[in-house]
Amino acid sequence: MRPRTPAPRRATAISAALALLAAAATAPPATAQPDQRATPDRAQSPSVTQAYERIVNGSFASGTADPWWAGSGVTNRLVDGELCARVPGGTANPWDALIGQNGVPFEAGQQYVLAFTARADRARPAAAALGEGVSPYRQIAKHDVQLTTERQSFTFTFTSDLDFPDAGAGQLTFHLGALAEESTVCVDDVSLVGGVKPPGGEPTGPSRKVLVDQVGYLPKGPKRATSLHPSTSPQPWTLTRGGATVARGTTTPKPADAASGDPVHLIDFSAVETEGEGYVLTVGEESSFPFDIGASHLGDLRTDALKFFYHQRSGTPIEAAHVGETYARPAGHVDVAPNKGDGAVGCLVDCGYTLDVRGGWYDAGDHGKYVVNGGISVWQVLNSYERAKLKGTEAALGDGKLNIPESGNGVPDVLDEARWEVEFLLRMQAPDGMVHHKIHDVNWTGLPLLPHQDPQARRLSPTSTAATLNTAAVAAQAARLWRSVDPAFADRALAAAERAYAAAKANPAKLADPNDATGGGAYNDNDVSDEFYWAAAELLTTTGKSGYRADVTSSPHYKAAALNGRGIDWAYTAPLGDVTLALVPNGLPAADVAATRARFAQVADGMLAQAAAQNYPAPYDTVNYDWGSNGLVANNGGVLGIAFDLTGQAKYRDGAFEALHYLLGRNPVGYSYVTGYGEQPVRNVHHRHWANQLDPSLPIAPPGVLSGGPNSALQDPIAARLLQGCAPQKCFVDHIEAYSVNEVTVNWNSALVWLATWAAEVAEAPQQPEGGCSVSYQANSWQGGFTANLVVRNTGATPWTAWELGFSFPGDQRITQSWSGVWSQEGNRVRATNAAWNGAVRPGGSVTLGFNGSHGGTNQPPAAFTVNGARCSAG
């Protein structure tokens, strides 16, 4: 993904917490003349021996104020290379008006030197405070200074008695309140030097030295792992389950590769096909996280990745009945104070009208809604359904599968969720047929900030050719898919698509302003030939009209000419047209369709060759990793999946699953990049609501959210501070402020949706039990609770000596009491194994079991059941 202009962030400290900081201050007021050293307020430790700089962008040479934040009522801006804060008058306490920086690392017992220059537009007091930026807001040091209209230099030395070595909770703030009149304070050359560890601490590598997919491997799929053993000679490995050895083998040493920089040992245990949980791989003294062999997790991943979009809805409350109390929130941007609202939004550059642009999905961790990112996202969600429908496997995406407000209306849930965004795209269409590029706040907001608490005014950015073509493409696709579901909506979508395409042809070079990056990302794109091709491909496939056929066949992108191994993103959309033309009947010459399909296999072969050379294989054809690399990896997994669909060759299927293995833990940082999946998933994604790292009262992200992943360019201050010199695949930190590596976006999750949907279908297809099984499920529900009774039947010819039942709840159901089995629940995933007395089930026999449970809303039944990892029919 091409990076958006980065967003400034601000602190989360509240006035009461800052009052604690002020009350803890012990230093007397100090004044300083230019370059004068002030008296330290704590006992001195030995002299500073390291020059580790703890402040990011203290000289403001970057041309931005990032990551400096301003407190409530204070406005930051750069003036002639200084950070100047406009401070309101009339505040009661010094800490009522703040500027500062979060994530400052400190080490207990170490000495630091703080230096800065400052001036004001009138003589006034100020203070620099250092300490903890989250509860309980402990203070390390505070220094009072007297500012004048002349620029002065201040230097203070102190010793820290608190320990924040990894840039977590440490903070530097300037206290600027308690003045009757409004004033302006400017600071520059802010430096904090000291400590004995580099910022972020000494690199230690992943917490486990045997790296696996932390969730699971397919019984018949590739099962490979990477070990960080120091020897250069082959080493023995063992695979165990429940303490018993299942398999043994010998590693294959490999030298360091460019992507990771790690010399490693590779392990292949693909021959192990027995399904089950709790496998552990060991090399020497090091062991992997436990993992499963089976397929049921893929159905869960498909559902959770899709549910992300309901969480991101704008303009409607997110209800506890569908997500649980933890993730419920009021509607955002619906013209209820303090929101300015999306009901009648005017233009950033006056256009003479307003638009009602309520609805849609919030793009990422911010409150913006962007047509060019929404376009690829909703297209991928819809294409996952269209592909499944063509194969007759769409039932897994049907009505009631997601537990969203529309569940039960007779329309597949995936279409209902996608329509929330399609309707928004249609609302963004201007009277002349062009489409506005985006809508977001006039200024960036800080973290955390729930959507309904956003006080900023909202503005429409000008229309653009790229946004107009995104809407044309998606609306044409929607017209196809809703034709048999809601013909009136299909007609409306197609009319909007054709009108948008005509407007784009009349305005073929109306490009988004790269400088329109205040309050939201610019999303500028100087080449829209790929969007023209994509839109024409969708319109041709939907209408069959000759004009669209001519535009498709004359495009330089025709026959997948531009498909490559870097990956698909919002600024590179020609491959979306290729997917449609390769999979959906369109009336093009058979030879041309065959050439497009062949190109997918050709590019997939290149991905496989590239991944084979890596120690942590990821289908990603570049040395350096871009912003959103995980989304690109997932999209390339999708290309491999399409190559398998078109050829049936197992190598492409296996390559697509290797992409999932990388995302779910087999990578050099040892994280599962999908929240809630694996033993060590990312927790602190960049998001204004899922901001537990900054405010413990707020949640971490729900399961199924894909982090952006490694970014070699280190395009945010936290990543720049912590990751200097990182190998490309290691340029990642699980930190909420590290937005260039750990943000979430709709288009990365849509890539995960497509890949997980494909993977679940492929995994489930061959998993029908050799002997057969069926499960009946009957629930008696009341408000807040229910009783479920299940009959599990052996419909095959082979006796069972033991059984394991698996399923996933579609909502927030929780088991409270159970019988006739050993039950466990993790999130919405449920497992039950036989009791000591009912494990043996003869052919034709059955076992009855059940449980009591609670629920917060509609008590939808599970969609599917497995026994011993095999998919069962309804009993």
From TrEMBL:
Biased composition (Polar residues): 228-237
Signal peptide boundaries: 1-32
Keywords: Carbohydrate metabolism, Cellulose degradation, Glycosidase, Hydrolase, Polysaccharide degradation, Signal
Active site: 686, 734, 743
PROSITE patterns per the UniProt record, alphabetical: CBM2, GH9_2, GH9_3
Catalyzed reactions per annotation: Endohydrolysis of (1->4)-beta-D-glucosidic linkages in cellulose, lichenin and cereal beta-D-glucans
Enzymatic class: hydrolase
Residue segments, region Disordered: 27-48, 221-262
MF terms (GO), sorted A to Z: cellulase activity; polysaccharide binding
One GO BP: cellulose catabolic process
Keyword Thylakoid assigned: no
UniProt-listed Enzyme Commission number(s): 3.2.1.4
The keyword Membrane appears for this protein: no
Bias kind Low complexity: ranges: 27-37, 238-252
Listed InterPro entries: 6-hairpin_glycosidase_sf, 6hp_glycosidase-like_sf, CBD2, CBM2/CBM3_carb-bd_dom_sf, CBM2_carb-bd_dom_sf, Cellulase_Ig-like, CenC_carb-bd, Galactose-bd-like_sf
CBM2 domain residues: 766-875
PANTHER family per record: ENDO-1,4-BETA-GLUCANASE
Entry similarity comment: Belongs to the glycosyl hydrolase 9 (cellulase E) family.
Protein name: Endoglucanase
Lineage: Bacteria, Bacillati, Actinomycetota, Actinomycetes, Pseudonocardiales
